[in-house]
Amino acid sequence: MAYVGVGSLVQGTTILVRAGATRLGLIAVAVLATVVTPVAAEEAGFVSLFDGKSLAGWKANENPGSWQVVNGEIICHGPRSHLFYVGPDAAKPAEFNDFHFKAEVLTKPQANSGIFFHTAFQSEGWPAQGYEMQVNNSQADPVRTGSIYNVVKNFIPPAADNEWFTEEVMVKGRAITVLVNGKVLFEFVEPEGVKGTRKLSSGTFALQAHDPGSEVHYKNILVKRLP
Hints:
This protein is mainly beta. The protein has strands spanning 16-18, 27-29, 46-48, 58-60, 67-70, 73-77, 81-85, 99-107, 113-119, 131-135, 152-154, 165-172, 175-180, 183-189, 204-209, 215-225. Strand 12 (165-172) and strand 13 form a beta hairpin.
């Protein structure tokens, strides 16, 4: 394992990012070479969050027209909106602590999106709770796919536009592991005593429609609760 300081770039090895050593500063990483065998969709414990034909179990906040389901895919394209997973009973929203989440994603050129975790529904604005895993392979924002926004920054796109790729995040205790196409980008270990709402706690997932110029497709959205 290599240990990374603020602003450094390491390539070709697995990184264990220990945020406590950097006072929770922004950490920059490069796309790494460690390969993890992709998890088969039918592996025991994984459940689908998307039925492939509707947004049942999901709830959009502002600008719900930014979301549609076409050919078994969730497509986000339009003004800012966030689509929160609430589960089968919106009165008792789904909540996750330790988990392994994965989805197949396709970005169109110049598209920006994100996958929030440990978040909670809010009626408008950028989600204030939890972390965002970036989805962006070519948009003007240089923070690329797999980054934990404002915490761990990856500036090298690990996937290409107009091609399906798999994006995964695992949370176990205070450790966050991000993978793209079965390759580990990094493991970030959150320090104890983080203040505010941008931290690990518990919560649900949300997909982001970032702006009218961004179009991103999602399918095969799966999660497995970890003991």
